Amino acid sequence: MHPRIEDYALIGDEQTAALVGRDGSIDWLCVPRFDSAACFAAMLGDENNGHWRIAPKGAGPCTRRAYRPDSLVLDSEWETEDGAVRVTDFMPQRDKAPDLIRIVEGLSGRVTVQSTLRLRFDYGSVVPWMRKSDGHRVAVAGPDSVWLRSEPEVRTWGKDFRTLSEFTVEAGEKVAFVLTWHPSHWSRPPLIDPFEALRCSVADWQAWAARCRYDGPYRDVVVRSLITLKALTYAPTGGIVAAPTTSLPEELGGVRNWDYRYCWLRDSTLTLGALLAAGYHEEAEAWRDWLLRAVAGDPADLQIMYGLSGERRLPEFELPWLRGFAGSYPVRIGNEAVKQLQLDVYGEVIDSLELARRSGLPSKPHMWRLQCALMDFLRTAWRQPDEGIWEVRGPRRHFVYSKVMAWVAADRAVRTLEADPGLTGDLDGWREMRDEVHKEVCERGFDAERNTFTQSYGSRELDASLLLIPRAGFLPPDDPRVVGTIDAVRAELERDGFLLRRYSEEGTDVDGLPGGEGAFLVCSFWLADALEMTGRTREARELFERLIGLANDVGLLAEEYDPVGRRQLGNFPQAFSHLGLVGTAFNLFGGESTKTTGGAGQAE
């Protein structure tokens, strides 16, 4: 039986990440970066596509598991008839090559433990050549090599293209495995002390978590989300991936399977706001600097997403040898949506840069020039139809949220000039654009009969992104049109009494795809924010409590949730979901000084 998405836990080193199942099997790992080819891809296929399981002989899922407090170090424990054993999984922060460390510790009795390693490079398609060298088992194929050793050394042998170990541990005994990837033309990797690495990793994570300035209720939940966001950060550049996975389905057995191992501009203000509110100014500045580098160039060429270092070419293709998670095919690498026109990203970038300036992050000399260039392009481009925030693959439309974010761009540019008269810019022209966009949206994007804004001009469909209208400052929260929109979105898009779909699906061709999807978790956090802004704080807090109850046993959220199957869906863990959780926690419980507002979450 295929594991559920929520059966996995995350470990990582801020350059890549692995997913560990309840059964002790690591079924997903891309090396050396988040967007590299996987050497363990069983999650999207089967065991023959690569995995590494360590567990007591003959055992099933672990009895319990948990992260060590305020860290990304995972402990999984099994209780068997012969005794109890713990496996500790983590990836220490690194200089060059990634290390994956698994420490087996006897807790009671005498337990026989098995390790089964199947290395398969290039997303499970390449079986490497195995050899012994300097106390290691070495796997080599093309540009990739993986070195495996144990401390103390245990007997290891090869069988049926697997690397096997079997040993016993008694209470207090420990055996550590260290798996290191590096380019195949390099010599043996430097040895790492696994037990010292564990001590340092726990201490480093706990010191980082201690910097969090959130002191409201649900602190453990907020810190877990912030640690997850830190783990999804590509440390060399400051970019934050949407998720460390590709092709986890939005509908089991469906085709809505996308590669999320890239950095989305739509997340930019929400990310910046959450980091600043939590007190992580260094990370916020690194993200701001990544943003500036990524979007540099012709404003007409602005993309909705970029690679970890700002790469622009993310060609999409399919892997026919992988059957997909729970048979959800195809498995896609790359993301064709990179070519889409999404006008909202202009507003999100300008909003982020205005927030960065207002929050006291050190300014960059070219930052204002970039904003002016974006505004020059947007002055005429905002009138175009686009694909919208959700990357629909149907026809372009005049999406209301895209127009609202064009208004945000003009509004933030005007605010910046008004606050700093020393800057130069077309103040009158931007004010005129702001007024024109506002008037058009209220006339063409509002259904007076139903008292709600709509997904696009002239449509009757609704969209959860409309909940961001008051957060963007487009209209005040007590405006009857805002209240009407919130109520209409809940009535049409709500599922299971509190979960929201992104947009109407029945009888529409808005996304150009067959099938459906689950409830989009960040949208429900937006609903909680909207309820709080309109004075319905009790409802907002009840909704927040129900949402955090959807996290798995180690506090992780995927992109979506299936209220019928009661399971998580989509790529996992999802930065957007955890960003929504952090922002809503600050809005509801963080006090006035740490509330987030703005187009996608601005720290005041």
TrEMBL record:
Top EC class, one word: hydrolase
Transmembrane regions: none
Domain Trehalase-like N-terminal, residue spans: 3-149
InterPro entries reported for this sequence: 6-hairpin_glycosidase_sf, 6hp_glycosidase-like_sf, GH15-like, Trehalase-like_N
Pathway the protein contributes to: Glycan degradation; trehalose degradation; D-glucose from alpha,alpha-trehalose: step 1/1
Gene Ontology molecular function, alphabetical: alpha,alpha-trehalase activity
GO biological process: trehalose catabolic process
Stretches assigned to coiled coil: none
Record's keyword terms, sorted: Carbohydrate metabolism, Glycosidase, Hydrolase
Reaction catalyzed: alpha,alpha-trehalose + H2O = alpha-D-glucose + beta-D-glucose
One Pfam family of this chain: Glyco_hydro_15
UniProt protein name: Trehalase
Source organism of this protein record: Streptomyces fagopyri
Lineage: Bacteria, Bacillati, Actinomycetota, Actinomycetes, Kitasatosporales
